[in-house]
Protein 1
Amino acid sequence: MVSPGALRVVRCGGSALRGARAVFSADSKQVGRGAGYLLCASGDFVKVYSVNTEETLRLMGGHADLVTGIQLNPHNHMQLYSSSLDGTIKLWDFMDGIPIKTFTVGSKLLALYALASAEDSVFVVIPKKGERDTFQLVSVKLTKGAGQDLESKELSVVLDGVGASVKHIAFGREGAYVVSVKDVTLQVYFFKRKLLNRFSLSTVKTKGGDNRFSCVVCHPTEDCIATGHADGKIRLWYLNFHHRKEYTYSTLHWHHDIVMDLAFSVEGTRLLSGGVESVLVQWHNESSCQKDFLPRLGSPIEYISMSSDGALCCTLHTDNRITIINSNLRFSRSIQGLIKSRDVKTGLVVDPRTKALVLNGEPGHLQFYSLQSDQQLFSLDIVQRQYIHQAGLKQSDLVKVAFSAQGTWLATVEESEEVTDPELQLKLWFYSEETQSFTLNTRINTPHDNHITDMCFRDMDELGDDSLILVTTGRDCVFKVWVMVEDTDPEAHESVSWSCDFVGSYHNYQATNCCFSEDGSLLAVSFEETVTVWDSLTWDLKCTFCHPPGNIRNICFGRLTCSKYLIGATDYGFLCCWNLLTCALEWSAHLNIVVLQPDPLSEHIAAVSWLSKESSLFVFKPNEPRPLYIQRNLCKEKILLAAFVPRDEPETISSEKYLWLRKSQLFFLTDTQELMTLSTKSLEERLTPSSKQLAVEESLPVTPFSLLLGKHRHQQAQEDNLGKPVVHNKQEQASPAVKELLHTPAHVLPSASFLCTIFINSLLISKENKSAEEVADEVEMESEKADGDSDEEDVTVMEQEDTSPMELLGEMTCKLSKSQEKELRKIRKMDYSWIAAF
Amino acid sequence: MAAYKPVVVQACPKLGEKITQDTLYWRGYKTPVQIKEFGAVNKIDFSPVPPYNYAVTASSRVSGFSEAFMLLSFSTGRCNALLFFQIHIYGRYSQEPIKTFSRFRDAAYCATYRDDGRLLAAGSEDGSICLFDVSGKAPLRQFEGHTKPVHLVGFLSDKYRIFSGGDDYSSNLWDIPSATEIISYHEHTDYVRCGCASKVNADVFITGSYDHTVKLFDARTKSSVLTIEHGHPVESVLLFPSGGLLVSAGGRYVKVWDVLKGGQLLVSLKNHHKTVTCLCLNSSGERLLSGSLDRHVKIYSTTSYKVVHSFNYATSILSLALSPEDETIVVGMTNGVLNVKHRKPEEKSENTQKKRQPAYRTYVKGRSYMPKQEDFCVSKPVKRVLRKYDKLLRSFQSSKALDAVLEPPIMLHTPEVTVAVMQELHRRGTLRSALAGRDEKQVNLLLTFVARRVIEPRFTPVLVTVADMITDIYQPVVGQSAIVDKQFLKLQEAIGKEIDYQEELLEVLGMMDTLFATFTKKKDTCLEENKSNGVTEIIETNMNF
């Protein structure tokens, strides 16, 4: 537990899912229960998703570095092996999210394979000692010991000179042989005969491109290997055990670029392949004429994995999305968190309506990412063009986003990657309440002659929509002011569109940033080295500020009590604060600021500096040059963007030092696209209580017998203590069923129509029961008196609330006649049939 | 998994006027019929009863000139001298007058129908007023009293009295049965040229005069009741059917006054740039039309008093009338041309040749079925219809997709589609291979399209690339085909012209900049305002290849 005052950097989303192939849990077939799990390596964690509801059920953390491989324990399907770069293999019980054992191997582990035939050992890829970029496949004997942390240093080298990726090694049917590919060589090692066969493709580049291997998989039932190549070909090798030099292969070719991953179906009749085209190809019977496609999966496919029963297949994409696909090659659902885009050009923007983070999503889309649920709320298609997954194309993408204060208007700028003629488009979207989404209102082609550098709305809550103004700054040395105009037809429906109102420039300098003051009366536009301040009513230039040398990188106005200050950061590492009333420099500091972010709800401004490979955070108020809070070395990666997200309710923060975090939370995005935040809470507190509760609930014994026995014992003990039986009133009788119903997570419950009758039945009081009840009634009176006696007893009563049918049963064994016992046995059967159905 | 997104065709907004309900309505008139009258048409009046004939009063401006002309026509012997002093009655669809009143000693003015359409009154250059029966020829009554030409005649709404205004500054009231003058008002100080009777009150009429005033008279009083100062010589006045609002036109202004508030100015409209000569209301009273010497008819909405539409004519407009059901617009002009526009018949909404629908029974089958609770519903995916080029683009057949948009119907009528597909191919990096390998005919087709459209600003960026590639690809075969060579020359010519044009535009811009610079206030030296953004956007750099 960390001391309560300390501020911690917490990762909260966007970790790469690309460490290893995803794994389906073995029970994914049980559709009725709905407990199919999908396990996935995500950064330092292993994530457990529910296949049916797409929910993140559990986050298993414990590794100190990137998780590189996950495999189900072949001997126990409820357990999972995971390997990591920190040199440990962990065995998990993923149903409960508890680490069972940790085996320390010592060197970096790059891939993990677990085989059913290998009794107590797993195979890992480790770097060869003494040589760089050379890796070997070793088998690790997992020592059996009592403790949780074990050392397993018994390594035996199986293959030398293998590829580092998990895709470069595959094990043949029943673990008889292992195949490894690297560059243009294919190695097959037979375990039984200790025979190593090595084949090489010709290194001469054919006209199709290079034929280096990119991935390999083995047929589940036959001696057949499928390899993918960098030129898009798939080769099927048929092994001949007797003649080591003779090998035959057939070629399948559809992909135009590198084959990223391959997977055989469970029976081996179908082969799935995927690549950067983001098309999943299904080959039938190893022939190239019969193939099916699942096109437009959104982004390049990185890994393909099949469930053990073959009913489902899932693809992991380069943008951290998981797509689950049915066996008949139909898209089923997708699991997506923070989508990784190639380059977050839009910055981190907060949607005022949903408080979601808004940034570049998949190409041409804007993603709305919910911070609370770590899920993508929705993805808005801005560019509305077919995205072609091909290298070297000039794609057009979203570069700027701005929301109006209430979130009713959204402005987006898209441009193509061409340097000379960026096809610029400024689009204005209106949020329509009916469809609950943004609809395109105005599209402006080439709003500027050159790239748009910044864009902002005039934020005025109180004045309504009439005062809404959009300002764009461009590298064509002007800034433009856009206003809403109503349609000229006086009797037509009220419709508005946007048009240019004013064009301003300053000495033919490129306009780089713009910012409105809090009351909207002033507009600050920076032109290279100079900041100009304009009156937003008359568009007159009021004053200019300059702090040479260096161009202005960021500007922002102070808020609330500090609204008379203008803050600017320059390229040459100065942070300046100008007073707008005196038009003079108030203070300046020598800091290389990369991110300057004002808090919308307070005076605080967060600045992130980047100096000598570490990011530091400074939080200050403009009216005093001394920062309120400094955190050096915030994280290893460079911080590119930051945003303050308003909290729903102000948090109670004990330490005065962190008061700036009270109203809003600071999120930042690193260059590896991981989303981080600052939190005063410790990790244990932060873990969502619901998932913890879930784990506890599930770990309870659920068999009727254990319930019965447990309660009976409890009852016996209580009777011994009190000497009197405790019986409860009728309402409480229903509680076990109700409680069970309410506390079981929704995704594991059977359908409501099925539960309904049971639920109603459990509320009924059957006639047979009544006789026993009447007997018990008198006793109850006394017991209540007894209850009042001590607090201790009260507690035990509370625990017992849901057990009355069993209690009665318990009583009966002592008191009631045999006929009544029989009748009650019937009731017992009826009541618990539904639990058995689970 | 996302569905295929079709190619976005950039719709370019049409410049100029916006299409509104009003534009559509007022455009619903046929091409005008031109009828030549013998002089400037100064009054057109529709009969208020079907078949809505209209009386046209035309005269030469200068009587002396007309006499000279009369002598001339005598000498040629072709037409009657009396022709010049006529009132023509036209039927709605006739191009020749169906009736002519010609018993005038001098030029006639302001032929006006009575409410029941049976009597017609007209003033004359010699100061007399004639009353005709529409079916007869000779005047029924003649009212003598004005000493100067009478330019204004009208019936009061009780049908038994006539009011008139003359160049002798007086406005008189006449009794029809006895043909005597009831009262004479000498309040105006200049020519009385226009007037109007109230439809609500039988005793009230208004007159407008060149002394810049509009006066409201009540026949029961000895003097005017209300005087409104218009500010310019009043050319036309109009009362709304309710009698509460008064519209006056004079100079470049049309002004609306509230009579019930004692002549308060409601709104002043200045949409013409020459004198407004005539006013007219449509049948519902929701639109006001004004004609002017600047050759325009403007249509205002009477709720917002904004111009909703405007018509353009060949010469200055003197008179304007709208038939009782807005069926016809007749405009008289200074050169004696009568411009008649008829409304197009309402288009029948149902097409005569409908596709054969399936029988009702088949059609309805299964549609009325309500799914029960235990039914398992299988939803059919909505079938999206893709254009041919989209289908080809979806399967990456670039060359065929380009072929599909080079078909004449698409290429001629929707060039933006062709250009959009070219742009999409360029984006995919397959434009060059799609353009290559074409025969003479197809290259000819491509070059024709490029040469014709490359100068359109919205297509220029894409088509310049296309033209660049075509010249690159087909450079080796230049000179082998006369047709292709001709097209190349055409392309060169088109681009040369465009460059010259752009240079001229730049010159104009330079001139305008100097002008603007002299007008700019020198209040802030460091301030550079570039207000002419609309102009700069037109100018674009032309790539030469």
Protein 2
Amino acid sequence: MARSLAGFLALFPFVLICGAASLFQPISDSHRSAALELFTPTHGSFKSLEETYEALRTFEVLGIEKKPDVTATACRSISETLGSLTSTPKDLFYALKANSIVKCKINEKTSEGIFTRLNAAVNGASSLLDFYYSIGGLVLIKGQTSKADVYLTDAEGVFRSVKAFSQSDGRWRYSSNNPESSAFAAGIALETLAGIVSLASSEMDQSLIITLKNDVSKLFDSIEKYDVGALYFDDKLVDGREHQGPLSTTSSVVRGLTALAAVTAGSVNLPGDKILGLAKFFLGIGVPGDAEDFFNQIDSLACLESNRVSIPLILSLPSTELSLTKKDSLKVRVNTVLGSNAPPLTVKLVGAFSSGSKDASLVESQELKFDAETGVHILSNLPKSIDVGSYTFVFEIVLHESEHVKVYVTGSQTKVPIFVTGLIKIESAEITVLDGDLGSIETQKKLDLAGHNAVSLSANHLQKLRISFQLTTPRGRAFRPHQALLKLRHESKIEHIFLVGNSGKQFEIVLNFLGLVEKFFYLSGRYDIELTVGDAVMENSLLRAIGHIELDLPEPPEKAPRPPPQPVDPYSRYGPKAEITHIFRAPEKHPPKELSLAFLGLTILPLLGFLVGLLRLGVNLKNFPSKAIPATFAILFHVGIGAVLLLYVLFWLKLDLFQTLKLLGFLGVFLVLVGHRILSHLAATSAKVKSA
Amino acid sequence: MGRSSSTKDAQALFHSLRSAYAATPVNLKIIDLYVGFAVFTALIQVVYMAIVGSFPFNSFLSGVLSCVGTAVLAVCLRIQVNKENKEFKDLPPERAFADFVLCNLVLHLVIMNFLG
């Protein structure tokens, strides 16, 4: 338990200090390997010239030698695009951008054609992006051909048309009809304006440049910051489609600003601390997982590193966890954002503060030694005042040469969270059973908390249990761990946890069983004892079973609280249940079959008796009509009655009431007709006989 | 002395009843026989139920009631057919017989339904 908590608690001091201190790492080899993974060509080429350019630029900036060879396919696609008459300025722009890295040869005729087309595009441009692609294309073609006289006619006019898209808050619009403005567009506009200035045939009007300066400073007013010191630009989300994230927006602005600063030679200045903030933003991203984000990050960092105004220097530590046991030394590196070496400088540790306390610094200001071989500044031995715990170390960078101070920007002080761990000495551990009020010792056993213990004690409810030990830090001071817990677990798995309090170095807990009888639910028996001492800075946190104690507690009274039900073993709760046996309704007791059959026979008996009686009475069929028609009717009558009786039998056996009634309807009608005929005939005959 | 006279009286009564009954027309005797048959069947069913218990009760009822019902209808037929009965002088016996048959068929339909 202590170990898992140690991991969580290791983050805790970082969360505390996050407001003030943080750590940025410059670009490293993990970036290079990620770049090779992200930018993989499919079948020897990338999907578009834009992607080809992004991949090649990234490889170039990171200095990756073993990059996939796409030169042949890229050249083919570039010359296709440049030669085609249907290419838009955007296609030409990206083809030329890719070519600036691949450096395929463009023949004279093609470059002439491109120049004419792009010039026409500039004159006919109406939106910011039109200007961007056409001006950008012209700047690129100027750099790639041997033509020296690629100039913009009426550069000032074009400058003014682009400037017309600017807004008073420093943002720019994409076109005159579209009211949406963004900082991303501002970046694009600044890059375009820088291109115009570089393409101008003569010196541009300085007043135009100065108005630009105002725009840039307005843009910087909208800069946002993270607490850790990173600065970035972001656009408010107006229309989800067009929204670029902070990374795209900031990199666009950085590209535009650095391009502008390069061509205006000092007129448009970027403040040094803002540059450092922007560099921290890009570094704070770590290794992006998306190719476009990766390109934006690397390209912007390259722009920041190569800008003429201020080059940011980043202070980083390879490890912020130091162990007193291993006698770790404090190592600091200072690099440029892309990981290259810094100019000669010294790193000074100006202060160390315990986290969360505002006391004075624990160390004096001292310089770190520079190891030229590894390029690392080292403080070999941590000062004696640094004990285990979490601290904030404050560093300052001092450049050796004065002219470097103007060129490089370092930030005033860098705060870094440091975590110091060590072995905590646990001494004089002992467990005692004391007699009730007198406090006399009944049993006392020494404990070796570093090793295995299995003490066996017994106590009754009138006695007390005491456990005590001492904790000392490597520097000899008192130590208060995050966890000092004593757990007693009964045989029935019911646990009780107690905190071990301390005064100075001495930790002690006394369990008075008389007061705890009710808490223990009056359960007597064997209790296992477990001690936990843990802290994030403790390298030897422990969770030890000490032994067991046989407790003899009195019987629970009637109203005593019952122990809480223990958690059910999940497998038994969610596992298969006992099989259910269905209890069917007991079948009714039937009389024995023989009896039923006997009575069936007996029931037939009266019928036989009836028939016999009829015979004895001398019944005859003399009245049965002899003529044909009445005879038929008579027979039909009897057949009809027989049919109805048969229908009833079928009704009993398998028909239902409705079917029976239906059939009975038909039979009944038939029977009535037939019966009426024969009976009226018989009546007529007997009436004739009577009257005769 | 009293006993022998009462038995003698009983015997004389019995004989006179027998001779009087012999005078009834044959068709009425047939009907009487039929009634006796029906009642006898009902009795046997009651004895059976007494032995094995009344489950299922609906079957027992339908059986007994069919016998009783048909006996009752036969008695009605006898009343209507009896020539000495002044009340039904104008009713042709064939008509009475047709009623008897019809009512019996209806009775037995109900009985069959109730038999289960």
